[in-house]
Amino acid sequence: TVQDNEMAMEALCRAGDEKADRWRSLGIVWRNVILMALLHIGAVYSILVIPRAKPLTWVWSYVCFIVTALGVTAGAHRLWSHRSYRAKLPLRVFLAAANSMAFQNDIYEWARDHRVHHKYSETDADPHNATRGFFFAHIGWLFVRKHSDVIEKGRKLDVTDLLADPVVQFQRRYYKTSVLIMCFLVPTVVPWYFWGETLWNSYFLASILRYTVSLNVTWLVNSAAHMYGNRPYDQNISPRENRWVTFGAIGEGFHNFHHTFPFDYSTSEFGLRFNPTTCFIDLMCWMGLASNRKKASVETIQSRKLRTGDGSYGAVNSTQDKEA
């Protein structure tokens, strides 16, 4: 009947409105969804470009990946978020440029949000709260607006050190320009200018593929390293030791250790083992560009393992460095 049809249409419209309301309540940032989808499509295409590119372009792309990773691990993370060592101006400038190549928000915002992540881990104030699932912790958190708790807690943190750092503030002021130059122009132009690579090949390999891989490697620390692995230092927290993440993220996969001893510049009990970022910081110290490396003592680590660990690691490494 006509009345039944009208009721059916009304129910259908009501269901559609409810679904739309649910999407709106999530605060989806469609710009980010679309841009990330296009970026990953470009990365898949980039794989087809690899055989056509020159071997030097492969090497260059990997070098750019390492520089990108150091901008996050040695820069935004270990230096500016945790102040686990000190760096002189030339090193800070290099790490800021490398961080712009990473294009994962400017140093100030990255470090502030990371401090919130540590202080309120696995709560609504955690920007990439892993209790909301792998997808959210990995990339989904970028597809929705920040939870109000993240914003509120972030405003209460002490970030005076970041505000007082001229390198951090310079990068923040000129962030878009520095990203354009470091993340896209430099990786693309160098192969074309120095060894005659096509701009097409160098753009898709050294820029698009390198950038996409570096993003996902960083995100795996937020997702996989909070869900898969053992917890030898503190079984009461979510972060895990994940060797696969360590390999990809050049030393950032010892995540249970890191959340237990966040001040430790090595983010690991095992010194240089599987930790290129630690090697880099040690090299900078040897060159006189870094100093005051903070390290958890052997006794502190052993005591914590016995008290709260899951028993998956045995005796502390006898070659553990003392306070650097």
Automatic annotation (TrEMBL):
One GO cellular component term noted in the UniProt record for this chain: endoplasmic reticulum membrane
Q: Where in the cell is it found?
A: Membrane
Q: Which UniProt keywords apply?
A: Fatty acid biosynthesis, Fatty acid metabolism, Iron, Lipid biosynthesis, Lipid metabolism, Membrane, Metal-binding, Oxidoreductase, Transmembrane, Transmembrane helix
Q: What's any GO biological process attached to this entry?
A: unsaturated fatty acid biosynthetic process
Which CDD domains does this one have? Delta9-FADS-like
The keyword Transcription appears for this protein:
no
Required cofactor names: Fe(2+)
GO molecular function terms attached to this record: iron ion binding; stearoyl-CoA 9-desaturase activity
Membrane topology of this protein: Multi-pass membrane protein
Q: Where is the Fatty acid desaturase domain?
A: 59-262
Q: Does the keyword Ion transport apply?
A: no
Extract the Pfam families matched here: FA_desaturase
TM stretches of this protein: 28-48, 60-80, 179-196, 202-221
Q: Which InterPro entries match?
A: Acyl-CoA_DS (IPR015876), FA_desaturase_dom (IPR005804), FADS-1_CS (IPR001522)
Tell me the protein family, please: Belongs to the fatty acid desaturase type 1 family.
Q: What is said about the domains?
A: The histidine box domains are involved in binding the catalytic metal ions.
Protein name (record): Stearoyl-CoA desaturase 5
